[in-house]
Amino acid sequence: MSGTNGGAGGTQDGAGGADDGAGGPKGGPDAANGGPSDADGATRVFVDHRELLFAIVYNMLGSVADTEDVLQETWLSWQGRADRSPLDGIANPRAYLVRIAVNQALARRAAITRRRETYVGPWLPEPLLDEPAPAGAADDRTLRSESVSLAMLVVLESLTPLERAVFVLNEVFGYAHTEIAGVLDRSPAAVRQLAHRARQHVHARRPLYRAHPRVRRQATERFVEAALGGDITALMEILAPDVTVWTDGGGKTPRAGLRPVHGRDKVARLFAGYATRRATGLDIRYRRVNGDDSAVIFEGDSPYAVMVMNLAPDGEHVCDVYIVTNPEKLAHVRREEETVTQEGRQS
User: Fold this and answer.
1) Whole-number CA gyration radius for the chain
2) Is 284 exposed, middle or buried (0-12, 13-18, 19+ CB in 10 A)?
3) Per-residue pLDDT tens listing for the chain (347 residues)
């Protein structure tokens, strides 16, 4: 995990909740467009920090859709503050916005937990595809690559909301405990205790091996070719004996299992069934998902699945496979040529 120092600093005003204010596009002004040329000060400040806010909130929630909703609420609160009094009274706008966004995200966790209670089958975080910033846009979108891996997001689900907020701000974005205390309105001692518990949980469960990107890419391609190509012999060779597959279909895709599948033999049989669909025209694209080389599969023009693999410490065998097929979690997934076309229109 990387440590982009967001620098919380101090604020003169509390963040509070979402205030009444002028609305805006989904998630507030779009950072990809750099904001309108006649944007007022409030809009420019929000645009300047939008990608940082997105990255922090996404790591806290694991959902692109919920992150966009939180950013919209943050924008409304920020704009409402600007309507009431001059923004020059805020000593550190970045810290003010981070505080609003983090507390909005903590409030959103309750709704997410309620949805999880009735979710059908295994739940996985919403995959975040790494995409280049549009031509002419600032490089702030690279902040999204600070998002932790899909496997780590699964581990973070075991933390309490406060532990996760502290872990994300401290371990991923490099905020000091004193800065986090200001964001969460807790004492530095309480934040240090939360950070200690979070690290203990994560270090006990997180993958102990992080393969070189080139090794991951090669192993991912070998695995996908064997799994979807019906080469059971090659598949058995690359699967670890204790491999586990999680398939998140949300009850919306018929082939998604309702429970994780454990063991090499069972997993091989599972993918033998997937292989029969290859003849219907599945199109495999290798893309970076949450910073890792992964497989994005399309059926016609629609995204069919995102597959993310973890490697065993030997670097040769796949020990975990995460498959997201829930169409609601793939709604933002586009083909590379679609991304290029949209970027060309903006340039």
Assistant:
1) 21
2) middle
3) 544 444 444 333 444 333 333 334 445 554 444 333 334 788 889 999 999 999 999 999 999 999 999 999 999 999 888 777 777 778 899 999 999 999 999 999 988 988 888 888 899 999 998 865 544 444 455 556 556 889 999 999 999 999 999 999 999 999 999 999 999 999 999 999 999 999 999 998 876 567 788 888 899 999 998 988 888 999 999 999 999 999 999 888 766 678 899 999 999 988 887 766 555 677 889 999 998 889 999 988 889 899 999 888 888 899 999 999 999 999 888 876 544 434 443 33
245 forms beta bridges with 261, 321
**At a CB cut-off of 8 Å and minimum separation 6, what does 340 contact?**
none
CA–CA distance, 30 with 13 (Å, rounded to integer): 25
- Rounded Cα distance between 252 and 248, Å, is 9
Q: Helices marked H in the chain — which ranges?
A: 41-61, 64-84, 93-117, 150-156, 161-167, 177-184, 188-205, 213-229, 232-238, 264-275, 336-346
DSSP state of 316: S
Structure tokens at 103: 């507390």
> Kindly report the CA angle at 322 between 63 and 326, in degrees rounded to 5?
50
Q: What are phi and psi of 93, to 5 degrees?
A: -60, -40
